[in-house]
Amino acid sequence: MTPFQYERAATAPDAVRMASNSASAKYLGGGTNLVDLMRETIETPERLVDVSGLSRTIETRPDGSLLIGAAATNTALASDLTVRRDFPLLARAILAGASGQIRNMATVGGNILQRTRCAYFYDDAARCNKREPGAGCDALDGFNRIHAILGASPACVATHPSDMCVALVALDAVVHLEGANGTRRIPLADLHRLPEGRPDIETVLQPHELITAVEIPALSFARRSTYRKVRDRASYAFALVSVGAALDLSEDGSVRDIRLALGGVAHKPWRALKAEDALRGQPATEANFRAAAEAELTDAAPLRDNAFKVELARRTITAVLSELKGDAA
Amino acid sequence: MSIIQDAVKTAVRFVPDRWLPGASPDPLREKHGLLGAPISRVDGPLKVAGQARFAAEVPMEGLAYATLVHSTIARGHITSLDTSKAEAAPGVVLVMTHENAPRMNAPAMFMSRPDAVGASDLPVMQNRDIHWNGEPVALVLAETQEQADHAATLVKVEYESATAVTDFQAAKLAAHHPQSILGEPPLFEIGDAEKELNEAHHRVDLVFRTPRHNHNAIELHGATVRWDGDELTVHDATQMLNGTAGTLAEIFGINPDQVHVSSPYVGGGFGGKALWNHQILAAAASRLSGRPVRIVLSRESVFRIVGGRTTTEQRVALGAERNGSLRALIHTGTVAMTEHNNCPEQFTFPARHLYASKSFRLEQSVADMDMMANTFMRAPGESVGTFALECALDELAEQMELDPIELRRRIEPEKDPTSNNPFSSRYLLQCFEQGGERFGWNRRDPKPGARREGEWLVGLGCATGTYPYHRMPGGSARIRIEADGSAVVSTAVHEMGMGTATVQAQAAAARLGLPLEKVRFDYGDTSLPKGVLAGGSTQTASISAAVIAANDELVKELIRLAGNDSPLAGLGADKLEARDEGLASVDEPGRHETYASILARAGRDHLEVEAAAPPPLEMMKYSMHSTAAQFAEVRVNSVTGEVRVCRMLGSFDCGRILNAKTATSQFRGGMIMGIGLALTEETLFDPRSGRIMNPSLAEYHVPVHMDVPEIEVMWTDIPDPHAPLGARGIGEIGITGVAAAIANAVYNATGRRVRDLPITLDKLL
Amino acid sequence: MRFTINDKPVEAEFDPRTSLLDLLRDHLGLTGSKKGCNQGACGACTVLVDGERINSCLALAVQYQGRAITTVEGLGQTGSLHPLQQAFVEHDGFQCGYCTPGQLCSAIGMAGEAARGVPSVVTADLGDETVTLSHDELRERMSGNLCRCGAYNGIIDAITETFAADGSQKGDAGARKAA
């Protein structure tokens, strides 16, 4: 680990000010990903600004929306009764991730900004455009069983590993940011980038811009939502494919509205808009669920080892929506 | 196998048991009471309190901390080394490379002589040559671990690569017979198996593949070392104390008695806690810097410099007559190995002993690769060999429309099918019968896919497990009786969680007629009488044979000390037994004297004897193997292909069980590693670079709590008449047969045969 | 920098790079907490901070100034073991003993979470504020603690005996000698 200065911020503007003094400064939340990356010297900040003491409140607002301080721990968010009742998809996604210990440490902000598990990203003996722009990508022809099938580029086929983000993107979450030039809000769906030619640039955040909160708009039918994670162990493993969904059915059995997102398939949490569009107004049948999944996956471009993800995603989407339909009945 | 060994083997077959040291029945084998009782671990309270001090936790004044730098190429040489930045970094004590490392002899390879335990015979940091991707090229020593870790990233190394063999598929083309497979010929044939196969009524001919594995004991490999002049002290995590001392001594050109290795607690071994580069380099750096050194490998470094189980490609072909008897048993294949080690993953061994067949063809080849030397890992050979053989049998049984257990009944041999030696004790069919009954085997529908619960397909599978009995030669034990009649039994052996400390205290107490509280078992240090290594499920029998020998000496000494005034006067050793804290007449219960009394009368404050175990000739006269029937019930998700083991039962015949509690844990532990072998574990070796790409516990998936169901274990408890204590060793057998039982259950659930491990969900979609 | 460790005030100066685990092990001589991966993948380093379980290997010590830390040494000592430690001994909830301190601290933190109603991914009804520590709940909640020796059954039995109110989960009937 490269030596660094440690400072603890009391407010978000303080944090931004502290970070602004150093080009390589990083914000430290729970440290569960950053500390590991620093040990691997993939991250080498000269300054760490500890933001774990900033807002961790989880506020339910009168309109039913939620405002979550970015320093809230994963455990706190998953345990919040409003989240559990009104947005079970989110609670389940968080609880499907990592371990009890890590969820106690990890913050909401840190979870959003965690980095890929690609083996070639982690190994400094390998070529990786994400670590070293222009170096090449050893994952393209290497072990890429856990890699992306959607939205990848020849420069990078890595996936975003978060479970929580899959739920957040399905729920149209908005992130609140604090930067040198003040505050702004952007949809989480727009925060993470697809790799294109610059996989090292993973988000649209400006230098030293800090995530201060996440806002989840009210969504009444999110009470009927769930998250399903498919992985190589029964617990404590990253997703091969995950599906987060909320389903709103009309009395006639057609899909009034739907939210659908996928994890483990792309460089960012993947909102399945094509599938949603295909289903809105259509009868909620297994055949239609499958057709919608097909629609979402028509552009899938599997690699040597991960073709199974296409079929797995198709099946899991169908199963999750069928399950939600069953719950609604 | 040499001509002399063969001649001894042949001669031993005709020698009566009573002439055979080590083969005469141990009187303790039938004794009940303390032996076999579910005693809690004697080292348990220390371990749960966090007070057991492991190798990297031994305090020393002035410690410097070490970190390794690994090569990033598989073969070639270093062209330039720039250590200036690292040397200038804060806290750095020393940067050691091949340019300044002390001159050291290459390690003597394992089995090249009795105390040689080198994992390979490559010299360690002695020249610029690179032999595998991950080989240490520098060691950085600093005042703190943080400083050493950082400085290690500042060492700049440039290489010139040479063409490396890092693709098993390519390496296989040049596969060849090794000199031997652990003393057995690489090709063994009875009859013309291919011809018999072709003429057989039923045939299966299948290829199985198993990947590389790593032991991944949770304790990281580490050592704390110090030189005092030419005396080297190594606090190590090892399962081979004396071998480590002997091999290190030769490497550094000193006498074995100048190396002191201590390892009272080992945080898991499974074959991996051996002598690797890190102890050698730590000792070298300590010598060079004049500082005591602590080295704790990172998990990545463990993957890079500690070998694991190698990959195998196996063919099993079985030909059967209509009545179920085997006409041909063919088990052949290839493993990856290096030119610098000798560990051929003896996957054909189960087939040599398990089943009767008219003809055999058993052949193993090795494909030389440029990689970290592979090594022994829990049930080397048998773990992956039983996967192939037992899956093939399941497929044959299906073809014959026979229950798989019935098929095994029909091919049960009367004597060892390849050596023709009698079995010392074998109750495999009893394991199947009793295990099957308890597991509910008769509820299995042989038709695949017949049982569904919601999304889940449910299936049952079974397989045979097996592991040989071995007793290591060369172990000694000391027995010391104190004035108060208490005893200390000691030998330089190992406790890595197998229960050695507890079981040997139990056994010593039973042998000496003492209550457990009055017996202490000392182990884990080379200052004790020379012990045996912990490997191959051999420790318990090997220690016991040494303790029996020492006890014979003890009784002789006690008779001498007791003299003519003792109630025991005039009784020879054969008329005496240990009981009630002393010796007693076998025939006249009233004649008894305590150890304390004998010593007091003789004016002795203690009595100490030491003896070595006799050579293990019983192994030459008998075919000695433990066997097991493994049962698994799995659920396979019809949507996602996920496999969950929901029930497991292991039914074991391992001779006498010495502690029901610790034995249960040994069996279960092996079975759980078998779940990993079957479903989740794989070391990803990149064929382009020869580099391991998942050197982490996050990406190498050992089973977690949620992967593991309640596991039932049962055993025959029939003492082996030819093993000390009647016990054959239980460390490895738990893992054997498990992968096959699970794979067979997956087939029963889904109708899909997966013949390459691990059975990940993508193979079932 | 100040900490409260096992109820005692502790002052220490160290490199900001030092993890809480290394602070405990290398600086303070509290070697009960173990290092198994140093990347949050095995749980051997689990300690309690203000009663909550965390992986101390991923925690920069500097970030935990002023907090109350409990390690295995603070649970109980030989002769006066915590009931859970005693249960681990009785149920053989370990073999080599290396993952054990982490399993113990994790189980205690886990029991606290369950008492506070923290759900898990296997909790059927997320709206239910009370947690019943079933076999599946325990296995899921303890999955962040690897045991390579495979003492999982004994660990779950020990935790069940100590923490699960409903004794019906107790299941150490796994070992049976055949008649």
UniProtKB/TrEMBL annotation, chain A:
PROSITE patterns registered for this protein in UniProt: FAD_PCMH
InterPro entries: CO_DH_flav_C, CO_DH_flav_C_dom_sf, Diverse_Substr_Oxidored, FAD-bd_PCMH, FAD-bd_PCMH-like_sf, FAD-bd_PCMH_sub1, FAD-bd_PCMH_sub2, Mopterin_DH_FAD-bd
Keywords attached to this entry: FAD, Flavoprotein
SMART domains: CO_deh_flav_C (SM01092)
Keyword Flavoprotein applies: yes
Domain (FAD-binding PCMH-type): residue spans on this chain: 1-221
Domain of life where this protein originates: Bacteria
Protein name in the entry: Xanthine dehydrogenase family protein subunit M
Upper taxonomic lineage: Bacteria, Pseudomonadati, Pseudomonadota, Alphaproteobacteria, Hyphomicrobiales
From TrEMBL, chain B:
One Pfam family, short name: Ald_Xan_dh_C
Keywords from the UniProt entry: Molybdenum, Oxidoreductase
Aldehyde oxidase/xanthine dehydrogenase a/b hammerhead domain location: 49-163
Record PANTHER family: ALDEHYDE OXIDASE 1-RELATED, XANTHINE DEHYDROGENASE
Stated name of the protein: Xanthine dehydrogenase family protein molybdopterin-binding subunit
Source organism (scientific name): Mesorhizobium liriopis
Taxonomic path: Bacteria, Pseudomonadati, Pseudomonadota, Alphaproteobacteria, Hyphomicrobiales
UniProtKB/TrEMBL annotation, chain C:
Name used for this protein in its record: 2Fe-2S iron-sulfur cluster-binding protein
InterPro entries cross-referenced by the UniProt entry: 2Fe-2S-bd, 2Fe-2S-bd_dom_sf, 2Fe-2S_ferredoxin-like_sf, 2Fe-2S_ferredoxin-type, 2Fe2S_fd_BS, Aldehyde_Oxdr_Iron-Sulfur, Beta-grasp_dom_sf
SUPFAM superfamilies: 2Fe-2S ferredoxin-like, CO dehydrogenase ISP C-domain like
UniProt domain 2Fe-2S ferredoxin-type: residue ranges: 1-75
Stored CDD domains: fer2
Pfam families for the chain: Fer2, Fer2_2
Gene3D superfamilies named in the record: 3.10.20.30, [2Fe-2S]-binding domain
Keywords annotated in UniProt: Iron, Metal-binding, Oxidoreductase
Source organism superkingdom: Bacteria
